[in-house]
Write a structure and sequence with these properties.
With 322 residues, the chain is α+β, with helices and mostly antiparallel strands. It is built from five helices and ten strands; from the N terminus they run H-E-E-E-H-E-E-E-E-E-E-E-H-H-H.
Length: 322
């Protein structure tokens, strides 16, 4: 087994700090006026405000907790010599049965996290041109709305880039991860030369939606520019929408092995954390009783927003995926 395999097992994260996990803050409602009702709930045609629970707090959702545990485990158990930028992303796509080639079908009714390596399926992130256009229209409208006075949330930034990724075989034959050299297509400037190391994937199946999603945790390790010729190239026409701590990337990819060879056109949508250092710092403080509550709960708050954003993208998928 590869030593980098996180070997994540659900529940392997300690339950000791569960009481320290943040409760949701936005939906707290004031208690009913007990003085006027003699300690009983008001008897009116309108239901009185309710407490979040008998304890007055809302427990962290088990789905979000599972995602947080997985990402935290992947980050904190990575090999100490694996230094680089942590990348956590959610790709939108479909889970397909390896045997039939059709979309996976499981006996569940709602969004479900699959145990790693438990289902014989593969994830495909390629969407149709129509889906790409659909998301482009939705995100552009959202960007326009965010520019208007009185918008209900933080503004959304927009960038359009043209990049070229060239992939090279690793110099060490014992390594499986190819080296990626990313250039600005217009200027030729080298933006990054990295070896992307996978730490783990978590698949989420959505029987009620047109799409599923996959969470990936990776480390991008800076390396020297490789020698020799690239094995294949990916030209990326990318539109990025940035909101608070997250980027949503909508990308048209043209993939080929050599100039003039047959090309493959792909369309991809992914959500990722914009600040890997912030995420790593929050992971290190998670559940640390010596830290302030806002610091030890920051990681789960980041994951909560990450999951919410991924769900918004999935639930806005139009029918007829690739």
């Amino acid at each position: 087994m590869d030593p980098r395999d996180p070997q994540y097992v659900s529940g392997s994260e300690s339950d000791a700090d569960y009481g320290l996990r943040p409760s949701k803050r936005a939906r707290r409602t004031p208690p009913p006026d007990r003085d006027r009702t003699n300690g009983r709930a008001a008897t009116s045609s309108v239901m009185p405000p309710l407490s979040l629970s008998i304890l007055g707090v809302e427990p962290l959702d088990e789905f979000i907790r599972e995602v947080a545990d997985f990402v935290h485990h992947s980050i904190m158990t990575r090999p100490p010599d694996l230094q680089g930028e942590i990348e956590v992303e959610a790709k939108i796509g479909v889970l397909k049965d390896r045997g039939t080639g059709n979309r996976l079908h499981l006996p569940v009714l709602v969004e479900t996290i699959l145990a790693p390596k438990a289902a014989d399926c593969q994830f495909e992130s390629n969407m149709s041109v129509m889906q790409h256009r659909h998301y482009n229209t939705l995100l552009n409208k959202l960007k326009e709305e965010s520019d208007k006075p009185g918008y209900h949330s933080s503004p959304i930034a927009y960038t359009h880039s043209h990049l070229v990724d060239s992939f090279y075989a690793p110099e060490n034959p014992r390594e499986r991860d190819k080296i990626r050299v990313t250039r600005n297509e217009k200027t030729g400037e080298v933006i990054a030369t990295v070896r992307k190391v996978r730490l783990g994937n978590l698949d989420i199946y959505n029987p009620k939606r047109a799409a599923d999603w996959r969470i990936s945790v990776n480390v991008e390790v800076p390396v020297q520019h490789p020698l020799g010729s690239s094995t294949h190239t990916r030209r990326k026409d990318r539109i990025s929408y940035s909101h608070e701590e997250f980027n949503v990337d909508l990308t048209q990819v043209t993939s080929y092995t050599t100039p003039g060879s047959q090309t493959e056109l792909l369309h991809e949508l992914e959500l990722e954390f914009a600040n890997s250092r912030l995420l790593a710092a929050a992971a290190a403080k998670r559940g640390d009783e010596s830290s302030a509550e806002v610091e030890r709960s920051a990681f789960d708050e980041l994951i909560r927003a990450f999951v919410n954003n991924a769900r918004i993208l999935v639930r806005n998928a139009a029918g007829g995926w690739q």
